[in-house]
């Protein structure tokens, strides 16, 4: 369940209509399309059966192959504590905490945890509609999160105080239109969605 104050009536609460919190503890685990792993869906946009983009956290507990998604581009970031080996079309990459990798939904991807189970922040975008990026921002003290910088902000470590309460690891703040003031000491993943590059349209 998410907290979205779209029905607030007081003037002081008006800014809450422009943001939404998604609590990690309330997201249900779902099986991957191929049944070989699990994920928790954080946010999505577009048609329910054909979204423009989807953001989730996947748990990789054992060697497995990723599901394939024609027409999508993907960005994965290691957000768990342990590293992982991703082999994409036969080329292996060893990824540690906060490493990112980009690949196509049609690629053959095999995941191999190298110590214990770990988690990936997984962004999938429809290639002909939008372009997606994940980057890391570290805050200390009071900061302003702008939707122009990133529409979605996921807490990676530390904690962030917002108008909705305190967000901790893997809780998410989704901005609709206005900036949002936060405070704390934390690392955040910013998810930036922009129109598709012309060559992909």
Automatic annotation (TrEMBL):
Pfam families xrefs: HutD
InterPro entries: RmlC-like_jellyroll, RmlC_Cupin_sf, Uncharacterised_HutD/Ves
PANTHER family hit by this protein: PROTEIN VES
Protein name in the entry: HutD family protein
Organism for this UniProt entry: Gordonia rhizosphera NBRC 16068
């Amino acid at each position: 369940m998410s907290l979205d104050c779209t029905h607030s009536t007081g003037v002081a609460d008006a800014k809450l209509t422009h943001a939404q919190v998604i609590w990690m503890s309330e997201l249900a685990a779902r099986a991957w399309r191929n049944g070989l792993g699990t994920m928790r869906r954080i946010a999505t946009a577009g048609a329910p059966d054909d979204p423009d983009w989807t953001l989730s956290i996947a748990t990789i507990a054992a060697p497995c192959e990723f599901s394939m998604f024609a027409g999508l581009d993907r960005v994965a970031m290691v957000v768990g504590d342990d590293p992982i080996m991703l082999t994409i079309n036969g080329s292996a990459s060893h990824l540690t905490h906060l490493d990112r990798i980009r690949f196509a939904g049609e690629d053959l991807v095999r995941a191999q945890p190298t110590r214990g189970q770990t988690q990936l922040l997984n962004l999938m975008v429809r290639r002909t509609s939008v372009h997606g990026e994940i980057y890391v921002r570290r805050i200390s003290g009071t900061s302003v999160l702008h939707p122009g910088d990133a529409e979605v902000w996921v807490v990676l470590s530390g904690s962030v105080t917002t108008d909705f309460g305190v967000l901790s690891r893997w809780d998410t703040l989704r901005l609709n239109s206005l900036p949002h003031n936060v405070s704390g000491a934390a690392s955040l993943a910013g998810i930036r969605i922009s129109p598709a590059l012309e060559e992909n349209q």
